Amino acid sequence: MKHFLNTQDWIRADLDALLADAARFKRDRIGDALKGRAIALVFFNPSMRTRTSFELGAFQLGGHAVVLQPGKDAWPIEFDLGAVMDGDTEEHIAEVARVLSRYVDLIGVRAFPKFVDWSADREDRVLKGFAKYSTVPVINMETITHPCQELAHALALQEHFGTPDLRGRKYVLTWTYHPKALNTAVANSALTIATRLGMDVTLLCPTPEYVLDERYMGWARQNVAESGGSFAVSHDIDAAYAGADVVYAKSWGALPYFGDWEKEKPVRDRYRHFIVDEAKMARTNDAVFSHCLPLRRNVKATDAVMDSPACIAIEEAENRLHVQKAVMAALVAQPSGMGSRE
Amino acid sequence: MKHFLNTQDWIRADLDALLADAARFKRDRIGDALKGRAIALVFFNPSMRTRTSFELGAFQLGGHAVVLQPGKDAWPIEFDLGAVMDGDTEEHIAEVARVLSRYVDLIGVRAFPKFVDWSADREDRVLKGFAKYSTVPVINMETITHPCQELAHALALQEHFGTPDLRGRKYVLTWTYHPKALNTAVANSALTIATRLGMDVTLLCPTPEYVLDERYMGWARQNVAESGGSFAVSHDIDAAYAGADVVYAKSWGALPYFGDWEKEKPVRDRYRHFIVDEAKMARTNDAVFSHCLPLRRNVKATDAVMDSPACIAIEEAENRLHVQKAVMAALVAQPSGMGSRE
Amino acid sequence: MKHFLNTQDWIRADLDALLADAARFKRDRIGDALKGRAIALVFFNPSMRTRTSFELGAFQLGGHAVVLQPGKDAWPIEFDLGAVMDGDTEEHIAEVARVLSRYVDLIGVRAFPKFVDWSADREDRVLKGFAKYSTVPVINMETITHPCQELAHALALQEHFGTPDLRGRKYVLTWTYHPKALNTAVANSALTIATRLGMDVTLLCPTPEYVLDERYMGWARQNVAESGGSFAVSHDIDAAYAGADVVYAKSWGALPYFGDWEKEKPVRDRYRHFIVDEAKMARTNDAVFSHCLPLRRNVKATDAVMDSPACIAIEEAENRLHVQKAVMAALVAQPSGMGSRE
């Protein structure tokens, strides 16, 4: 059985099929691919877009989404195998996943890092716990990666450029300032999908400390080797923006300071000028701009950029609805010909 | 595109059509006017009746409601244009409204005043922010007015009197005691719809300090001029109840004390006797009694009044379901012949 | 009009019919018995399984569930008749139940004890308040009993033994340790349904202080008299497990310490060895094991027991979905031939 935990687990043909399905679901919103089916949306962290788009996606295809928030309006869950559960946790993931699997056809999981110890967070054990014990397909609704956002982003770029083939486009993933140290998930994901689709990718960030985890840097290099694009790291704003076709912005916390964010603060505060503004965009090849949202205006990008025709963040957000319908429909159908890279 | 922000924005013929539609939706509960459609219910404040009635109204017409609670299980939202968002807010209303507009066909908004500064609260900027940026119709689910309650109230009165024509009825909107200073929204709305429908309206309140904001007093006078009823303020309980056909109760905070509620407390505490009781009801012309709910029994109205046949508060609450179906269906259909007063 | 407050209120033939309907609903998941119908799920306490199973049950039969959490995202409710409501409560159950009855076809209520005063909690007044004022059927979603769990448990046993006739089976309800004093609801319910179905029931608990409330002990004796089984209390682990066909585990707080839980703690701490483990299970007649979930692994039962083929807790949890569909469908249909014992 196939889950949707990371695009990197999927073969390229199946990813392309998801994107093509999503484009069809966008044209023809209502269908019956999930008729009588249900998905549990398990949120360990808050959400607006993800919850709305999954809930409506299920509805538009005849299904139903149940929203669960463990530790908020449901029980706190244990993830350690063999634990003597005499502390705070009330129920083991083994039971949670098995019972949910009896009720629903799909399980979506959002579980952000705890932001204390990256070596623990990078194990992604909440998502993996669900995948291990669930007997139905599991969908990553953002943990340490965000593959649904990847597909929405990719579809928005395909729409913008009028072709599914994005090879040769100059793609800049730029770090931006944000008052808090954020999750690297969308940055990891942007790197993953941009290299997968064969673009010429630059990771622009203030210093080597802001480079992403080696797992995702490795995926990027592997993807470049397979898809024929390129991948480089830059700390030079002018050089990175020059001639860019795509500017994708995201803020994240520097991994060497993980869990020690007060120490990162003075470092981070020096790089407020990474904001995406008109002057930087003027250096590009009339680049398209996007962001996964939510976005702090005039901190990550200026009002002028956000309200310009170059901004496709709203399109990308809308695409979440349609790519997730494609993912849910594909996982429920599970054609025998669908292969996994694992 | 037409929103449903206030009844005062709508021409009388369209309000009458909504009420007639609502009566039909009450007889024939199930339909397909919202088949495959969705509404986002954005609650900045808690709700039971509003949420249940909108959620079920959407369901009964084949649609789906998504419930969002910004700052609770979604992101805190910025409403100021041009703000440098380096504080608590995570996302600007421009993005929230535009993205929601891609997901849903309608947006309902509940945003009570903050109860600190009436000159700020009276701008209704959350509702107006959604209306400004949304590309789909927006419905007021109670902000500083409560137009859905107005329609439910009007329908309940039409049912009680057996006719849509309420002209000439003596209508008393009475302030009542409540331990806390409450929103003026329903009082503003009762005044608005009662005068709009041509009734002879008395606003009964303890002192001139409890008179409503001049905007709504002005709407009442304007409505009287157009619909041929009358409007007066009274501080005399006996005179106001004498011969009344309708008694509508509501508590609210006095605007001169807005944000300074500790100072209002001793004033308010002197008027506990404004409670609606059998003695007062006996002075009326066998009046019908109602309230928007929730109602504190034996504080705003006695058990005897609440449990009497004169009380139509339950009918009014039920009507919320049906008038909201009428509003949603009308906004989604948006017939070209539908005119706005603005 | 018939509610589903306790199985003990229902005649045996109707309970058997519910179980048979549930088995059919399990085979044929999708239907239209609730087409266009709605249920309000009123949760005064958190829930995962109950909420998910009711919500999906309604969906699978064409209906819709509205989830309400009074005091959390809805108003705090008053249950005392005649109260002068100038304290914390905003609305009386009379209005809540009557208004909900206009919106929905069924009302489910979860209201755990407050754990301060058992003589108050045992009155079950939240559930009874809804049943009193509602004009639609009310379903107990766990208060001081848990009748939906009873049906799910009974169905799982019928499936395991391959027959609806459970008479003559040796059934052990064993108390287990848990760091907190828990509700007696599921224990009361297990005792009720096991004796009702004619099994030979042993209530195994550490001391006479852990015996259940006399109301439920009385129901057990009454059921035995009518159904021909037996009922005994034991404090001897070895004797109780010997030859058992069914082991059902649950932890609960000792009633003599109710509200004074710090005093119970040293007592409770002496009985950690009541955990269900392989050694105890080896003494049984190859017994089936179950629990209502959530379960703390290695505290109430060991990993080895939970992961053994003897454990049918997941089946029992799944059955919640199907028995609740049966209950909802039966209550909405309310055939005139359906009798109540009251």
UniProtKB/TrEMBL annotation, chains A, B, C:
<comment type="subunit">
    <text>Homotrimer.</text>
</comment>
<dbReference type="Pfam" id="PF00185">
    <property type="entry name" value="OTCace"/>
</dbReference>
<feature type="site" description="Key residue in conferring substrate specificity for N-acetyl-L-ornithine versus N-succinyl-L-ornithine">
    <location>
        <position position="90"/>
    </location>
</feature>
<feature type="binding site" description="in other chain">
    <location>
        <begin position="146"/>
        <end position="149"/>
    </location>
    <ligand>
        <name>carbamoyl phosphate</name>
    </ligand>
</feature>
<keyword id="KW-0808">Transferase</keyword>
<feature type="binding site">
    <location>
        <position position="293"/>
    </location>
    <ligand>
        <name>N(2)-acetyl-L-ornithine</name>
    </ligand>
</feature>
<dbReference type="InterPro" id="IPR036901">
    <property type="entry name" value="Asp/Orn_carbamoylTrfase_sf"/>
</dbReference>
<keyword id="KW-0028">Amino-acid biosynthesis</keyword>
<keyword id="KW-0055">Arginine biosynthesis</keyword>
<dbReference type="Pfam" id="PF02729">
    <property type="entry name" value="OTCace_N"/>
</dbReference>
<dbReference type="InterPro" id="IPR043695">
    <property type="entry name" value="ArgF"/>
</dbReference>
<dbReference type="InterPro" id="IPR006131">
    <property type="entry name" value="Asp_carbamoyltransf_Asp/Orn-bd"/>
</dbReference>
<protein>
    <recommendedName>
        <fullName>N-acetylornithine carbamoyltransferase</fullName>
        <ecNumber>2.1.3.9</ecNumber>
    </recommendedName>
</protein>
<keyword id="KW-0963">Cytoplasm</keyword>
<feature type="domain" description="Aspartate/ornithine carbamoyltransferase Asp/Orn-binding">
    <location>
        <begin position="184"/>
        <end position="330"/>
    </location>
</feature>
<feature type="binding site" description="in other chain">
    <location>
        <begin position="47"/>
        <end position="50"/>
    </location>
    <ligand>
        <name>carbamoyl phosphate</name>
    </ligand>
</feature>
<dbReference type="GO" id="GO:0043857">
    <property type="term" value="F:N-acetylornithine carbamoyltransferase activity"/>
</dbReference>
<dbReference type="InterPro" id="IPR006132">
    <property type="entry name" value="Asp/Orn_carbamoyltranf_P-bd"/>
</dbReference>
<dbReference type="InterPro" id="IPR006130">
    <property type="entry name" value="Asp/Orn_carbamoylTrfase"/>
</dbReference>
<feature type="binding site">
    <location>
        <position position="75"/>
    </location>
    <ligand>
        <name>carbamoyl phosphate</name>
    </ligand>
</feature>
<comment type="function">
    <text>Catalyzes the transfer of the carbamoyl group from carbamoyl phosphate to the delta-amino group of N(2)-acetyl-L-ornithine to produce N(2)-acetyl-L-citrulline. This is a step in an alternative arginine biosynthesis pathway.</text>
</comment>
<feature type="binding site" description="in other chain">
    <location>
        <position position="320"/>
    </location>
    <ligand>
        <name>carbamoyl phosphate</name>
    </ligand>
</feature>
<comment type="pathway">
    <text>Amino-acid biosynthesis; L-arginine biosynthesis.</text>
</comment>
<comment type="similarity">
    <text>Belongs to the aspartate/ornithine carbamoyltransferase superfamily. AOTCase family.</text>
</comment>
<feature type="binding site">
    <location>
        <position position="250"/>
    </location>
    <ligand>
        <name>N(2)-acetyl-L-ornithine</name>
    </ligand>
</feature>
<feature type="domain" description="Aspartate/ornithine carbamoyltransferase carbamoyl-P binding">
    <location>
        <begin position="2"/>
        <end position="159"/>
    </location>
</feature>
<feature type="modified residue" description="N6-carboxylysine">
    <location>
        <position position="300"/>
    </location>
</feature>
<feature type="binding site">
    <location>
        <position position="142"/>
    </location>
    <ligand>
        <name>N(2)-acetyl-L-ornithine</name>
    </ligand>
</feature>
<feature type="binding site" description="in other chain">
    <location>
        <begin position="292"/>
        <end position="293"/>
    </location>
    <ligand>
        <name>carbamoyl phosphate</name>
    </ligand>
</feature>
<feature type="binding site" description="in other chain">
    <location>
        <position position="110"/>
    </location>
    <ligand>
        <name>carbamoyl phosphate</name>
    </ligand>
</feature>
